[in-house]
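Worked problem 6 (solution included).
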Amino acid sequence: MVEDVLADIMGSLLIVFPAFVGIILSYFLYKKVNKISLFRNSPVDEEILLRRMEKAEAGEGGDADSYQKLRQIYRDIQTGAKAFLTAEYGMCVKFIAVFGFAMIFFVANVDGRWDFKIGALTAFSFVVGGVTSMISGYIGMMIAVFTNARCTMTATLSPDAVAWKESFNVAFRGGAVMGFALSGLGILVLYFLICMYVTVFDVASEAIKLFECVAGFGLGGSAIAMFGRVGGGIYTKAADVGADLAGKVVAGIPEDDPRNPATIADNVGDNVGDVAGMGSDLFGSFAEATCAALVIAAQSHDLVSAGWDTLIFPLYISAVGILVCAAVSFVATDLKPVRNEAEIEEVLKTQLALTTIGMTVVMYPICATFLPSTFYLGARSTFAASCANATGNSKCVTNGPFHAFCCISAGLWGGLIIGFVTEYFTSHSYSPVREVARSTETGAATNIIYGLALGYKSTIVPAGILSGIVFASFSLMDMYGVSLAALGMLGTLSTCLAIDVYGPICDNAGGIAEMAELPETVREKTDALDAAGNTTAAIGKGFAIGSAALVSLALTAAFVTRTSVLDHGVNMLNPVVFAFLLIGSMLPYWFSAMTMKSVGVAAMEMVKEVKRQFDTIPGLLEGSPGHAPPDHARCIKISTDASLREMVPPAILVMTSPIATGIFFGVEAVIGLLAGGLVSGVQLAISASNTGGAWDNAKKYVEKGGLFIDMPKRDNVTGEIIRDELGSPVLISVRQRKGSDCHKAAVVGDTVGDPLKDTSGPALNILMKLMAIISLVFADYFMSINNGQGFLNVPRQAF
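Solution. The predicted structure is:
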């Protein structure tokens, strides 16, 4: 008895201690970033002041006015970010209240009986998950806004090696604050919620009910992620596309030019979509993957009987992941810091690889400690009773620790490979993006064609890897193995978030540098950091999409297990299943159409507003001395109103589709819907994200002067084309930069790709996961309607 108590205490410490380590480390990193003060003298400030005076004396810019502008821009971005989150989270709170109240009644209908304890506890989990997701998004948003101007300040340091190191470190530490805070907070809240419910349910006999109630936590996190991803994506791309078109097309000025009224909204948007949205997205993935694994484990008589530590084993994966990420986090900032542009991507990739290696090393001892060697992944039976003569039955696990280790490792390394493949297709360091850049030689049309082809091609390897992970994991441990693979892919969540948030921070830093009219050398550094940030953001999106696919499959498996459909199997030739397979495959396209059009509508409003200000504010476009400042607040309001208005229809589509399908057509139709949405959504998400990322970095490749085009040589005096003795034009290689025809074509591709990579593509993750978690939470209610056949009582039959 004493040994069992000690084992439970040790198991709890292995979850709670890493969670607190993550939270404490995030605070420590925040204090490191805070040492770079924008408003009082510090060692860094003194060096910046010295450099500023030197440049002012040399006539190179960077005078006192620039730094005053920097501080004001920082305040404006911070104010705009808070205004948007206040408005968005106000709507989210109302949604949580209404939907949570409705859940009490829908979920309470279990096996034809009303059990309001189940309904109330599930609704409470939903509320807790939603609030935790909002807190995570707020933390990420505020630290990103807090860090961006500090990244700009450190980019002005001298010598250059110091500037590279400090500006990179500030951005990376800012991202790490969110990564560790979110991971620690998520695990801590989920574990305490489970411990609270243990006092209500008897684990030995009611484990299934316990973890079905806990699944509401994942639903809450994913629902808020839907609003964060869609609303944030519409906001950021409405501002970004609007600023691009208004600046470069309407007025012929850079998008971050201080004369452009949409610049502040654009910089706020970088944080809204890529930070708050991504944070909520990956928090939802963690919560849903954990809930799916717990629900599947609760169906196993052997795992429940093995003890509490075995049952909550999925939590140990994420908890240990925090410790590994924390141990490796100092490599990029202290042990192997960035000293020049070429080292940025190398350091970030090293960070990912080391974290994956570290997780692989520590996971087998964890598996060996908490999992039994043999067990049966089925209800109302044991390994001895069901597996004595079984061969090839994936529910019969004969080497539990090793099989679990293999599933987790498959997720870990599969995620890393997907991330690196994503980098290959979206970084201008490699040939695919350079081919897209070279296609601009013949105009925007060929640029669009090449970019689309790249996106479609980029799905091949990730789809193959995901298929291999699913096959191997299912073969070893049935659907429990798939859920462990999903958690394995999310095992490096803290590092992935740090690298992902790094990108928007650098993007903001570059925008601030240009708006504050700092020297060109500063913008060159922030552009280089941002280019790497675009690539790491694409890597983060690759992780998010891959984990979303595995999480969605694990949740679908939990739904199938809970509704006992596997007792008779799912017949793909059943006309209802096949019909809803097609409908589910269509939903990602319908969803993408809604979000893409929403960005277009909002961007049109933004362009018209910017043009109105150029026409009505005297001297604004010309940059005349003493002209009235642009009305940034009006542009922020346009993006905010558009995002709040346009995010509702896509959310309704995703949330009502599985509920309506289950109520009217039954659980088998829901399975078809989920399968179709998963298979279609993962391909569309990968291609959209990578296409947009490739166009973005192709533009940056042109802007940095990496593209050379052969052009006819002309006489310096007459301007006539010089020809050789055969009459052919003499060709010379001409570097393409901003303002060239190639750059204009690249800008078109980048603008088209913006809503693909930052709105529709990433939001498809939520579509896959949210439909599945809603189905799981409402499974008992679906089963209570004509024994799972829906109000239409659709019979089970094949073609």
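Discussion: The chain has 25 helices and six strands.
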